[in-house]
Amino acid sequence: MIDLRPVRGTRDFYPPQLRLRQWLFDIWRRTSAQFGFEEYDACILESEALYVRKAGDEITEQLYSFQDKGNRRLALRPEMTPTLARLILQREKALGFPLKWFSIPQCFRYERMTRGRKREHYQWNLDIVGQPGNVAEVEVISALIMSLEAMGLDASRVRLHVNDRRLLGEVLDHIGIPAERHLPVMVVMDKRDKVAPESLAAMLAEQGLTGPQLEKLNAFLAMEGLDEVQHALGDESAGARALDDLLSLMGRVGFGDTLVFDITVVRGLSYYTGTVFELRDRSASLRAICGGGRYDSLLSTYGGPEIPAIGFGFGDVVILELLGDLDLLPDLRSEIDYVVFPFSDEQVPAALEISQQLRRKGYRADADFGSRKLKRALQRAGDMGARHAILLMPDEMARGEIVVRDLERREEQRVGLEEFLKQTK
Predict the structure, then answer these.
(1) Which residues is 280 bridged to in the sheet?
(2) CA nearest neighbour of 255 among 404, 140, 364, 151
(3) Among 3, 250, 290, 356, which is disulfide-ready with 279 (CB 3.0 to 4.6 Å)?
(4) Distances in Å between the alpha carbon of 250 and those of 33, 35, 140, 327?
């Protein structure tokens, strides 16, 4: 027997689930348009080399990769940012910067599944390329927060935890970690919420941290306020100044309550160079809902120039879990203006004709040929999400009339068929 279940870690989308997914995508697309972003896309297959990077990124170990019939090493897309970099580098000279692009790609990662994590997901990617400074940060973070508000999530339910890789680099400098070890140490630090403290300490020791250095690092990671970290590093901390400026600007545009400084935010991808952030729910019932940051050097790693860039990835699986927990998922049904019910075989041609004429007038119309009892027909119309039911009753049809029932108001009227079609514009 063939196993009819979806591949482990993937999903099927029946119409109710697809309506919910589309509702979420509509919020993402509408928000992107409000901020002036343009949509792009690319093939789900990429060269494996696009994702094999230094510093032991987890993503390299999570690839769905294979060799095709032409002996090429390929991979299913695990994230969109390298694809974005590839697209930009192909036409860099012809593009006008800054670019404000977004996409909603399907991504695949062979990772350990937990609640809110699958091996396949859709992800809203929003990026600004070619805009230095905190202006771009404010734009992408503001768009993120406005999308959350459209879902019913505000600062009382979610917080955006913000840090800066430059600040983390200054911390590692302060405790005596050589610059060439910063990236691998940060990749390990990103596992802080995923492994036991003893395991994390052992992994950091493998990266060369001594006992005293580990104690100093933990002391920094226990600090809650930016002022406290800045005082420990000294007044010349560029990372602290950048964060202070960002928090001030976010307060200016009205989103200050949603942001909180969090020195433990690292982000596991090695290409981040500045601001990094993660969205978390206040109850801490789920892992990071969304994450992103500044990646000014990514394009240069593929042989291009160093172009400032910032963006985030926002997955569909975890946010739908959270909205379900908070009872914020909408009750969605299919949207049909009219459904036509014939009650005998003789009425089938009339039902087809009426529904087609309604479609030509721009209405969403369906004809149902399986409900021959009135109660069942009305129940079926309600299940379909129809606004009106057109009932082709034998006696009325003999007089050239139809029964039009308004399912929202629970009212009905008998009207001549020709008159109805003329009035319905």
Answers:
(1) 159
(2) 140
(3) 290
(4) 20, 16, 11, 29
Instruction: Dump pLDDT digits (tens) for 118-156.
Output: 999 999 999 999 999 899 999 999 999 999 999 999 999
The C-alpha atoms of residue 63 and residue 85 are separated, in whole angstroms, by 18
* pLDDT, tens only, 185-205: 998 898 887 788 899 999 999
Q: What is the Cα–Cα distance from 281 to 287, expressed in whole angstroms?
A: 8
Q: CB of 144 within 8 A of CB of 160?
A: yes
275's tokens: 């601001």
Residue 212: asked if its preceding bond is cis (omega within 30°), the reply is no
Q: Which tokens go with 392? A: 């082709």
- Looking at residue 57, its pLDDT comes to 66
Are 133 and 121 in contact by the 8 Å Cβ rule? The answer is no
Go through the chain and tell me how many residues it has.
Answer: 425
17 token code pair: 């689930």
CA pair distance 364, 5, nearest whole angstrom: 33
Q: Are the C-beta atoms of 286 and 322 separated by less than 8 Å?
A: yes
Question: Which one-letter amino acid corresponds to residue 98?
Answer: P
Which ranges in 225-264 belong to alpha helices (H)?
226-233, 238-252
Which domains does the chain show, CATH number per domain?
A: 15-325 (3.30.930.10), 336-423 (3.40.50.800)
Token pair 């697809």: residue: 18
Q: What is the model's pTM?
A: 0.90
H/E element, 74: strand 73-76
8-state DSSP, 196? -
Place of tokens 């992408």: 140
Residue 389 token pair: 């039911």
Q: Is 127 helix (H, G, I), strand (E, B) or coil?
A: strand
**Phi, psi for 38 (deg, rounded to 5):** -110, 145
